[in-house]
DNA sequence: AATCTCATGTAACAGGTTACATGATTAC
DNA sequence: GTAATCATGTAACCTGTTACATGAGATT
């Protein structure tokens, strides 16, 4: 039950159409929650049905025409309640550690270049976050809302730092001692 | 497409019945991928159908009787191929950062105790991983497979370290300057 | 034999993914 | 006016979640 609340948050920050929301889910919001345009349109329909948002009056609201949505008081109330809700942490759903564990059983095969690739992707993401921090908060946060936005950004920084640290060590370890013949190591592990 | 491969890995490590797998998904494997018993039985059926695993011959294979599965060569081959597959990192699906972002819009409300709770859960998980490390690898890894298993464990440690670091700072920041009246801060943000 | 627990399921639904469809606008 | 693009959707499918059902063995 997070996508509707992500959408409510985004619409409170700025009323938008489905396509605009989709673009925002590829940038800022998308760093913490992803969604395709099909999900977004489906969810906008549900939220409107439930009376939490409404489409702004438009002259010709047909297919192919932009339709802007804004949050109704009921939607804001629902979001407020969600913030206060108690909800346990979810286990990670990134398959990479799982693939490494599988590699421990069937052999590392060709996993090393994939680890390198992921390490570099996470490094790039980390650098991006650091640029945001320097660009948007050069003198620290100036309002209560900015303080919280910066905290969220720092969350991304801490997570990416964790990935980079882990993958850095994994690449180092696996390039050091495992590069003999992958087939041989696979056979040994599989026996 | 990760659950079937998680199951293949688990079954290669040790042939098991559905209920045994379910218990293992509450411990070791569950630290990196979660699954309910319903998911596991459904997936075991598919994997057997696909010829990747088979039920060990049993005298009375009826309902309510344990049914042990083992991986067939085709299953091992599928797992090996999955390890080598190229697959992009997934964006996190933990709603907590999202809730903090929402709090920036509708006010922090009662989120602080929830942040404390999560921080403590992640701290406990981190300590648990460190105990595993001390207990299972007191002199470092002794085989290639142990080296990889330890790497996976270190992944968990690095991720939990990231959470603890972030949540520690978030709690500190929000207890310092935000504790006036939540309602007032909510109104200010919402304006 | 009634009840409890364990193991194996079924069913219904929500959320996420991929492929495809259609109306409106813009570029040529 | 035709083609490309943009915006809004529909449909089918897969994964994950929750509630419930049933057979077998153990407990009383």
TrEMBL record, chains A, B:
InterPro entries given in the database record: Tscrpt_reg_PadR_C, Tscrpt_reg_PadR_N, WH-like_DNA-bd_sf, WH_DNA-bd_sf
Ranges for domain Transcription regulator PadR N-terminal: 7-80
Top-rank taxon: Bacteria
Domain Transcription regulator PadR C-terminal: 93-174
PANTHER family: TRANSCRIPTIONAL REGULATOR YQJI, TRANSCRIPTIONAL REGULATORY PROTEIN
Protein name in UniProt: PadR family transcriptional regulator
Taxonomic source organism: Nocardiopsis changdeensis
Species lineage: Bacteria, Bacillati, Actinomycetota, Actinomycetes, Streptosporangiales
């Amino acid at each position: 039950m997070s996508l509707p609340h992500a959408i409510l948050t985004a619409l409170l920050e700025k009323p938008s159409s489905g396509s605009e929301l989709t673009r925002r889910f590829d940038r800022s919001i998308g760093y913490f929650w992803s969604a395709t345009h099909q999900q977004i349109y489906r969810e906008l329909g549900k939220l409107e049905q439930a009376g939490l948002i409404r489409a702004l009056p438009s002259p010709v609201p047909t297919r192919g025409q932009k339709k802007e949505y804004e949050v109704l008081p009921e939607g804001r109330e629902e979001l407020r309640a969600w913030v206060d809700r108690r909800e346990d942490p979810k286990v990670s759903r990134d398959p990479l550690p799982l693939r490494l564990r599988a590699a421990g059983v069937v052999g590392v095969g060709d996993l090393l270049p994939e680890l390198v690739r992921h390490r570099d992707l996470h490094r790039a993401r980390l650098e991006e976050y650091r640029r945001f921090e320097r660009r948007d908060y050069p003198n620290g946060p100036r309002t209560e809302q900015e303080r919280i936005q910066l905290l969220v950004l720092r969350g991304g920084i801490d997570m990416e730092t964790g990935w980079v640290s882990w993958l850095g060590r994994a690449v180092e370890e696996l390039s050091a001692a495992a590069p003999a013949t992958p087939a041989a190591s696979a056979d040994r592990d599989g026996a």
